[in-house]
Amino acid sequence: MGSKERIQRLKEDTRLNILDAALQIVKEEGWQSLSMRKIADVIEYTAPIIYEYFTNKEGILLELTRKGYMLLGQDIQKAKSGHLLPEKQIEAMWVAYWDFAFQNKELYKLMFGVEMNCCELKKSLPEAEFTTGMFNDVISELIDEDKRTEELMCRKYYTYWSIVHGLISINLVQKGTNEAMNQHILSDAINGITRFINN
């Protein structure tokens, strides 16, 4: 490895360390506690070094949001590929979405502004569009061809999402029901929407 490649590798490692430190602080203290100075303390650099990589805290939040959508997209893609029937795919995909939310609570809260005042992040990240696109592809397969319109597909996507996201938010913000009850509600909601998707 040449010196140019080594320097580039060190820069990328430092950038990743900054993001990892930010997430570590958030897991321990919450999003409101995140600051450039705290990140610098964790990675044992001076605050000006952080600004060489990210213009401000919003830049870090945007990159973490992008990372969250990438991880979510991978989980959903894996869930989809485990089934052939669209009905099974859509259920597995929403369950993967649910699992992601609770395995990555801090990222999920940032991505969707749950229980936090998030900065005005770009609404159309390619990573977010990729995830939505996967859901829409399967929803399209579930809708009869003669009834399939962009408006109907959009409406059905938001019907699924509002119920799943709403149930997740209830459980993230306050204690919801027990896990077994949550799984029943989730399954009933997904399967109910799927059953009547052409109505």
TrEMBL record:
<dbReference type="InterPro" id="IPR036271">
    <property type="entry name" value="Tet_transcr_reg_TetR-rel_C_sf"/>
</dbReference>
<dbReference type="InterPro" id="IPR001647">
    <property type="entry name" value="HTH_TetR"/>
</dbReference>
<feature type="domain" description="HTH tetR-type">
    <location>
        <begin position="12"/>
        <end position="72"/>
    </location>
</feature>
<keyword id="KW-0805">Transcription regulation</keyword>
<dbReference type="Pfam" id="PF00440">
    <property type="entry name" value="TetR_N"/>
</dbReference>
<dbReference type="GO" id="GO:0003677">
    <property type="term" value="F:DNA binding"/>
</dbReference>
<keyword id="KW-0238">DNA-binding</keyword>
<protein>
    <submittedName>
        <fullName>TetR family transcriptional regulator</fullName>
    </submittedName>
</protein>
<dbReference type="InterPro" id="IPR009057">
    <property type="entry name" value="Homeodomain-like_sf"/>
</dbReference>
<keyword id="KW-0804">Transcription</keyword>
<feature type="DNA-binding region" description="H-T-H motif">
    <location>
        <begin position="35"/>
        <end position="54"/>
    </location>
</feature>
<dbReference type="Pfam" id="PF13305">
    <property type="entry name" value="TetR_C_33"/>
</dbReference>
<dbReference type="InterPro" id="IPR050624">
    <property type="entry name" value="HTH-type_Tx_Regulator"/>
</dbReference>
<dbReference type="InterPro" id="IPR025996">
    <property type="entry name" value="MT1864/Rv1816-like_C"/>
</dbReference>
